[in-house]
Every structure is written in C-alpha cells, then in structure tokens.
Amino acid sequence: MVTTPAPTPTQGENPTAFADQVRAERLALLWKLTAAIVFLVFWALLVISTSAGLARVGDTLIAGIVVIAGCFLTAAFLNRNRYTWAVAAYAGGLYLAIGILLYAEGVGVARTAQSGLAALALPCVVLAVTLLLPLREALVGLAIGIAIAIIAPNLGQPAIVINSIQIASILLMLFTVGIAAQFASEMYSITEWSLRSYQKERQLKDQLFDTQQEIQRSYMRQKSLSDELQNANVALEASRAAEAEAKNFRGQFLANMSHELRTPLNAIIGFSETMLKYPMMYQNVALPEAYRHDIQLVYNSGKTLLQLINDILDLAKIDAGRLDVLIENVPLEPIFNTVKATATSLIGSKPITVVLELPPEGLPEVSGDPLRIQQVMLNLTSNAVKFTQQGTITFGGRREANGEVCLWIRDTGIGIAEQDQETIFEEFKQGESGRRQGSAGSGLGLAITRHLLRLMNGRIWLESEPGKGSTFYFTLPLAQPETQAQTPDQVSTT
Ligand code: ADP
Fold it and tell me: Which of 31, 266, 281, 349 has the fewest CB neighbours in a 10 Å radius?
C-alpha cells in the first residue's frame, strides 16, 4: 500500500480544515484503488463469462463504467478542491453501480455471485462515506445505501420483497456506520489535540525566536554602549590625568609665587610698622603727621596682602595634598579668648557687641590642630566683622550627643542670598554680599576653612537670611583619650 506523507498544518488552520485535507489525500488514493479493482473485476468477469458462457456481462460492464466515471469525477472535484463534492461523486458512482447490479438481478431470482457481492459491497461504500465525511453527511450516505438495498432489487416488481442478503447488507451498513463514526470522532479528537499542540509549539517557537532576536539586539546595544563607556572612561582617565597635572602645576606655581612675594612683603610690613610704632628706631624722630595716614594704608594693605598670600599658600598645599594638620587634644577656651580679642580689635569703632554663648560647664576638649582651629575661627570672625555694620557677633558652642562639639559664629550683618549659600565654599567664589561690599577679598577663606575642617574630621554649614545676618556652624570630634599626632597622609580627607 502506498503511504502518502501526512500534510503539515499551517498556522491559523482549524482542525476541520486539516481533517478535510487528510481525508482528501486518502480519497485520492481510494478512487485510484477503486478504479484499479474495477478494471481487474472487469477482466476477471470477462474471462469467466466467456469461458462459462454466462449472460449479464452487459450489466456488469455498465456498472463498472459508472464506477470509473465516478472515479474520474472525484479526481476532477479534488483538483478543484471541492472535497465534499468529490466524496459525493465517488460514493455516488459506487451506489449507482451497485444499484444497477441489484436491479438487474431482482429479488427472488436465482442468485449469482454478482448479486450477493453487490449487496454486500454496500456496507463497504457506507464505510468509506462515513470515514470520509462528517457524521451528518455519513448518515445521508447510510440512508441512500439502505434505500438502494431495499429499492433497487424491487424496481419494476409488483410487491416489495426483502430477502436475507438484503437484511444482512442493511445490518452490516448500520454496524459499519456505528463503528466508523466512533472511530472517526476519536480520530478527529486526536487530530484536533495534535493540531492544537502543534500550533502551541509553533507559537512557542516563534516567541522563542523573537526573544532570541531581542536578546541579540540588546546584546549588540549593550556591546556598543560598553564600547562607548570604555571610550568615555579612557577620555575621563586622560582628562583626570591632565587635571591632576594642571593642579600640580598650579600648586607649584602658587607655592613659588607666594614664597617670592612674601619676602618683599615682610619688608614692607615690617618697615611701615616700625615707622608707625617705633620712632626710637629713627633716633626718636617721630613720623610726620602728613605721612602717618599713608604709611598706615601701606601697613594695612601689606597685612591684607600677606593674608591673601598665606591663603594662596594654603591652597597650593591643599592642591599638592601637603597641608599639615597635626591632630591633638585641644582645649577651646584659649582659642575663644584669642578670637574674641581679635574680633574686638577688628570691630574697631563699629557699634558691634561681642557675645559669648557657652554652656556653664564650659566646652570639652576637641580633637584637631589648635592652629588650624584658630585659623578657621579667625576666618569666620573676620568675615562676620567685615559683613556686619552694627549689632552683635556671637561666639557659641555646645557638646552634641553624637560625640562632636558644634561651634558657631553668628552675626547681624547683611546675610547671604540663598543661591550663594553653597557656592561661597568653592575656591575664588564670592557671594553677592562680598561683591557688593567691594572690600578686599579673595573668595578663598571659606574654601580653605572647609578643607581644614574636613582634614580634622569636621563639617561646616550655614544658616542665613539676607538683611538679618548669618550663622556659620562647624563641628569637631571630641578629644580622644590618647590621640596621636598624625602626619597629613594619615589624616582622612573627604
Ligand atoms: P572673602 O575673602 O571674599 O571673604 P570667603 O571665602 O571668606 O572669601 O567668603 C566668600 C563669600 O562669602 C564672601 O565674599 C561673602 O559674599 C560671603 N560671606 C562669608 N561670610 C559672610 C558673612 N558673615 N556675612 C555675609 N556674607 C558672608
């Protein structure tokens, strides 16, 4: 037997269409087989009838021709994809041929092998129809088969007679339809199940394919991003190196410049101070009053310039990472006294009162570099005096619960605009207040102050309201039981 490869269902096909497709292929095989069998039967009948001298060969020939015609019609319908029509043509040919044979024999006439075979061939046709068509159409086929079995032999007879072969044929047809319908419905369920599974698997495969594509795309994207990142890193590394080199160069330059400037400046300050304060150095010849004001200006400007140079030197050291901070336990009282005295002298004739806001038990010792703590406080104090015309400057402090001491310097000066409150801690940045003041200022004091505090593990921040005043807070860690002096490299910088 020839096996036809099972058709492959395409996506979106329903199980009925798929079943029809399978059946159509079976039918194509079936009509060819039928035609071949009919040819064989013809040949056999011709041989037998010629040798035995039997009549009725004509009926058999007609029946055979009808079957063959049905087969060709079937092929034609199949070619046009008219499946139901093809089955109808195939079954119709067979039914008609059997009907012709049964009619030719008649009922009650002496039976030939032909008539018996014809009656029993009906269940075979019904079986084929049931297997090839859905149940409803199969039942029509059954009805036609039964009708042929009963009517064909009785055509032209006075009364309808049903013999045992007819009854056997009808019973066989009923039995065949029952079994075949059951079998076909099972096959249909199996087909449906396998088709669904196939469709599911195909969908899954498609999804997997899409996912794989997506993964591939995101891999490519990631690769190009990582390439970009790598290039950016290389560029960043290069610019970091350039920045470090520039900083180093700037530090070196500032250090040299400051050093070179300080020597003549010390002479200017020293001589102007001697001229103002020590006439004995000039054989007690007092400085003429006409010069005093100008020499005082030279002296003051020299001091301001020296402060600026010292700041620049500190900045250079910060750049080079060589700012010295020697950490030890520091009592704050002497520093407060010095700062208060300096504040009083800086205030001069301004109507400003200096206030101390300290706890009655005093402040505990802190951990830091005493000179640098003093430098921090003097920076903040000189700013407070510089930006306050009247009112109070308050020095305060308290011990915090978190193991720190918080110190503050509050003034009733011009205050700092909101947008300046962060930037004034950057190098060479002055706030609106500083620019308005027009006084000598480099914008370095707070930057150095913040850096010094970081070196001593402290923090600085401020609260200010323009027109009302500012408060600068800073913290220092409480003194350690045994604090060792540390070199700058050991000090943690943030
Ligand atoms: P400068 O040498 O300009 O004072 P600083 O770094 O010490 O540099 O201060 C930066 C800026 O911060 C000042 O120019 C000023 O605008 C502002 N500032 C600092 N302290 C005060 C203050 N107590 N009151 C008002 N403005 C202040």
Answer: 349
State the pLDDT at residue 438: 54
Domain residue limits, the chain: 15-207, 323-490
Cα 273–Cα 277–Cα 278 angle in degrees, nearest 5: 100
Give nearest CA residue, ligand 1 atom 23. 384
Q: Lowest-pLDDT range, 22-36, 188-202, 343-357, 431-445?
A: 431-445
Provide the sign of the torsion angle of the four alpha carbons 75, 78, 82, 83, taken in this order.
positive
Cα 289 to middle of ligand 1, angstroms = 35
Q: In whole angstroms, what is the distance from residue 29 CA to residue 455 CA?
A: 97
Ligand 1 pocket by Cβ (under 6 Å)? 383-384, 387, 411, 413-414, 416, 424, 430-431, 433-434, 441-447, 470
Q: Is 194 helix (H, G, I), strand (E, B) or coil?
A: helix
Which CATH class, in words, describes the domain spanning 323-490?
alpha beta
* 344 Cα to the center of ligand 1, angstroms: 19
Give the Cα separation of 2 and 350 in Å (integer). Answer: 121
Determine the pLDDT at residue 23: 77
pLDDT, one tens digit per residue, over 292-321 is 999 999 998 898 888 888 888 888 888 777
Do residues 412 and 391 lie in contact, with contact meaning Cβ atoms separated by under 8 Å? yes
Q: Is 67:128 a contact under the CB 8 Å cutoff?
A: no
pLDDT on residue 272 = 92
Binning pLDDT at 50, 70 and 90, where does residue 26 land?
Answer: confident
